[in-house]
Amino acid sequence: MTPGRRSSTFTRLLRHGFTDPSAAERLLDSPELSAVRDDPVLLEALGATADPDLALHGLVRLLEAQPAPTAHRELLDTLIAAKPLRDRLLGVLGASSALADHLARHPSDWQVLVTYEPRDLHPGVEEFERGLAEAADPVALRVAYRRCLLSIAARDVCGTTDVAQTAAELADLATATLRAALALASAAAPEDAAACRLAVIAMGKCGGHELNYVSDVDVIFVAEAADGADEGKALGSATKLASHMMRICSETTVEGSIWPVDANLRPEGRNGPLVRTLSSHLAYYQRWAKTWEFQALLKARPVAGDADLGKDYTDAVGPLVWMAAERDNFVTDVQKMRRRVVENIPVSEIDRELKLGPGGLRDVEFAVQLLQLVHGRTDPSLRSGTTLDALQALAAGGYVGREDSARLDEAYRFLRSMEHRIQLYRLRRTHLVPVDEADQRRLGRSLGLRTDPVGEVNREWRRHTGVVRRLHEKLFYRPLLDAVAQLAPGEARLRPEAARERLVALGYADPAAALRHIEALASGVTRKAAIQRTLLPVLLGWFADSADPDAGLLNFRKVSDALGKTPWYLRLLRDEGAAAENLARVLSAGRLAPDLLMRAPEAVALLGEGDGTIGRIGGLEPRGRAQLEQEILAAVGRAENAAQGVTAARGVRRRELFRTAAADIIGSYGTETNPAEADQGALIDRVGAAVSDLTAATLAGTLRAVVREGWGDTLPTRFTIIGMGRFGGHELGYGSDADVLFVHEPRDGVDDQEAGAAANKVVAEMRRLLQLPSADPPLLIDADLRPEGKSGPLVRTLKSYEAYYRRWSLVWESQALLRAETVAGDQDLGRRFIELIDPLRYPRRGLGDEAVREIRRLKARMESERLPRGADPKLHTKLGPGGLSDVEWTVQLIQLRHGWQEPGLRTTRTRDALAAACAAGLLSAEDTAVLDEAWVLAGRVRNAVMLVRGRAGDTFPTEPRELAAVGRYLGYGAGHAGDMLDAYRRTTRRARTVVDELFYQD
């Protein structure tokens, strides 16, 4: 050969798909293949395999392993002469190094691939039992199992069987293997076998007749005593047999293992007995079983042991399976379990996870099983344990759209084919798509992708997972639209009863009304209806994830009726991924946010991802006080009178309350792309700051409007508003009044009486305008913390405050002033008021003993007198033990005692003061954490009650749906309201213990 010039053989090998032609040339030149090295049939056949290099290497090993020259010659002659053998043998060798290893150890097993009788094309359990019949021990059973597996793989890689048939054959082989293993165990312990009747129930993919090449085989064991045998002894014998059978299959020998037999789907899992009687199984399922256990039983199938007992078992548990959808929170439980599976996948693997990842095989299986369990109660045709058969039955019955069914079927088959080929290579249990390019190339070629195997297999994989991801949840909801829509000829419709069944399973209390809403939204041939038909399947799922799906759907219909003709509305929901889910969460989380939205539906634009070109306001990030005040003052400046100005200010307030509530709900619930906010303190701090800033800006705008109308640019007296209580502490909730003090100071040359009259008129007009009935929520101003309380004047001059505090101030007033902060009006006057009160709220040398005792007496009296009659003290967020009052009074006592010497304590904010007390060594870190957790939780509960009920409250709701909605806001899933109440009692009980020690003890 001329140096530098490739041989013609080298070029031909490249053309036939070899990646290492030099090594292939050496193998073809080896003594084993020298006789046929130039035969074009061999090279063509090798080039047709998934991995020609691997196939050639495996063939040489097989030829080397032949025991005699005659056997070597027989194999080569048959290989060249018989195309069926050539395709099967080389196909297996090019796809599976593990089966090549088996053939090298058992060189005569290639002959099982020679026969091509019709009965060999689709063998069943009987054929496999014959193939395993001569195995007299576990080692021989493994060899026989691999021999049968070899024939299944050959039919698979040659395309004789499709992926569903291959999975069924693997399940039949597993059935035959379990029977053979049980026979070996029984032969080893005949007395145990005689003492009991033992049935093996296949579960999971084996039970569903859709097994992988390498998979755990899930089983459940059920046993009864043989005639005349003691039940206890019989169960002991059955347990020994079952354990031995599992070991025969699972243990590693010189021939490896077959597969693990997993019995963890049994009642109580690994903590329960391995074997139970039928009555024991039923007692457990009727009393203790969780939703997922009934879902698992959907695939239960007797496969080995006592056939009559196995049938009795499936006949007995079957009705329980089909009643599972009647359980409370059934759909939520199933979907939550699916989410948990995804959450447990390591981050480094989730993008390669073929089975469990988003858009993977499990998504299809869960969606199909969910529909089976809901509708299988009334339609026996759906009761198949095989995913693809069940999907076909669902489409035939109109429970799934035919087009959706066809696309899912195609995607599932492709993904299962990928899974099969990945596992077949080394016969290892894996569901991860390989990252190595050579492995991806073999995978792609094995699936018939020959032009660009690596690129094509990745594109097809992503395309199919994308289809599954888009369809698997819509699958449950889209037929609800078809039930009320015009369908194409021949398309099956979901029956009204089935649609109601599905809605009830989703948690809708009034399915008839829900169907009417769906019909109103989705019927017709308009563009609006077409977009709604696209949106509704997803929205219905998000509504179902809330405590009140009915309210979510009704509210969505109201918003759509109000905005349906607005061009940007449906475009926003369709094109901005976050907007539709955000809207669904907000509309189904309670009354407050939807009520705010209904009064001005265009605020839905805030839920988008952009900068909110609609109304120039977008996104859910809270706006700062300066920005809010600037907008409100500009609106007031454009108004013709005070009433119009305050109306504009209240409109901004309503919109911003909606923004704050929506952000809070979405942060608390989480979305598909953003999990719920883990830091509960951050959530309540954001709400407190946003509502307090908004209230301050609203007061500033109202003050400007009133002054301008009555006096022009200048009021005869300087005027400032001091925030008190939660307002001053930046801790306002949705239902909080604005606690304030009003301070004025006559301008030079203005009579005190004139100044006082002007100040009082300003206050009266502000209060009136902010409470006028309108579409916007009122802002209630509470000035009861002023000197002399309700008996004292609403407005005082700075000098009057100074005189009062010097002569008459009580300790409770010093405590109240801890939260005082200027919020609106004349800033200089506000600064001087704060300078005036600082010595009162941070008294030099702290509080005297008598003052401390007085605060304790006031606290005790408040607890006994102000708690509403009939309220459960332990669940009262404000006055109950460990609630807001307990924590705040404890913190404020520390501030009064030590604020004079600890600058960090000079804050109006409870959590900041707690942190400062800890930093100063006045509180332990543990006590600080306990008090902070209780304060945050109690505040969050109050906010939740307002969001859910639309009116303020200090106790948990008693109505079940409202209580569930509060729980959902706090992170508790459906059916866990009791856990929420227990956690609240536990948290506040710990806080009360700390309060008793810090507040009541010296």
How would you describe what is shown here?
The protein is mainly alpha-helical and 1002 residues long. It contains 44 helices and 10 strands. Strands 1, 2, 3, 4 and 5 form a 5-stranded mixed β-sheet that branches. Strands 6, 7, 8, 9 and 10 form a 5-stranded mixed β-sheet that branches. Strand 2 (217-225), helix 14 and strand 3 form a beta-alpha-beta unit. Helix 2 (21-28) packs parallel to helix 4 and helix 9 packs across helix 11. The model is unreliable at 1-6 and 610-618 (pLDDT under 50).
| Rounded radius of gyration (Å) | 38 Å
Structural class: mainly alpha
- The oligomerization state is single chain
Helix proportion of residues, in percent? 55-70%
Strand content: 5-15%
Q: N-to-C terminal Cα separation, in Å?
A: 103 Å
Map the helices and strands.
Blueprint: H1 8-15, H2 21-28, H3 40-47, H4 52-65, H5 69-81, H6 83-95, H7 97-105, H8 118-121, H9 125-132, H10 138-157, H11 163-188, H12 190-195, E1 196-202, H13 204-207, E2 217-225, H14 231-250, E3 261-262, E4 275-276, H15 278-287, H16 291-297, E5 301-305, H17 307-321, H18 330-343, H19 361-375, H20 387-396, H21 402-426, H22 437-446, H23 453-482, H24 496-506, H25 511-522, H26 527-544, H27 549-563, H28 567-575, H29 577-587, H30 592-598, H31 625-638, H32 642-669, H33 680-711, E6 717-723, H34 725-728, E7 738-746, H35 752-771, E8 781-782, E9 795-797, H36 798-807, H37 811-816, E10 821-825, H38 827-841, H39 849-865, H40 884-898, H41 910-919, H42 925-949, H43 960-969, H44 977-999
Parallel strand pairs: 2-3, 2-4, 7-8, 7-9
Antiparallel strand pairs: 1-2, 1-5, 6-7, 6-10
Helix pairs in contact: 1-2, 2-4, 4-6, 4-7, 5-6, 6-10, 9-11, 10-11, 11-14, 15-17, 18-19, 19-20, 19-23, 20-21, 21-23, 22-23, 23-26, 24-25, 25-27, 26-27, 26-28, 26-29, 27-29, 28-29, 29-32, 30-32, 31-32, 31-33, 32-33, 33-35, 33-42, 40-41, 40-44, 41-42, 42-43, 42-44
